[in-house]
Sequence to fold (145 residues):
Amino acid sequence: MAVDENTRKRNALELYQIDEDSIVPFFRGHIAELRKFIQEHSESNLSLLELLKQFIRIYRLPFNMQRYMSVQSTFIRETLQERVQNRQDAVSHWIQEHAGRHRDRMIQLQCLFLDRIRARLLPEIQKMLDEPEDSGKDDSSDKKV
Fold:
């Protein structure tokens, strides 16, 4: 079955918001929450990959918020082009109608993307999790003035 051009463009735009280079920094930036989450779910017998997916589903955070907001802005502009009402009303309406679904779709795509890169990702995440908890903190006494 052929996919129309609009659907193809929309799919490409949705995939654009998943920035592979932001995944490890995302988890590093949330390492305390991730460790706590894994500890709380230690008896669930889920793999690290499944725990990572559950973590992003529950916390509902994009890997790269800047790209996510850029894509959402593009979707809003496309929707506004179809309407001739007050811009503020149209933006408000779009957010009410579509923002939740947009975030849900993005979270699902992130989970699917983790499957794609799991061979490279899981060793990095495991190494990060195995680091002492205070190793990720910035020690300002080591900085040169």
In short: Residues 8-132 form one domain. The chain has one domain: 8-132.
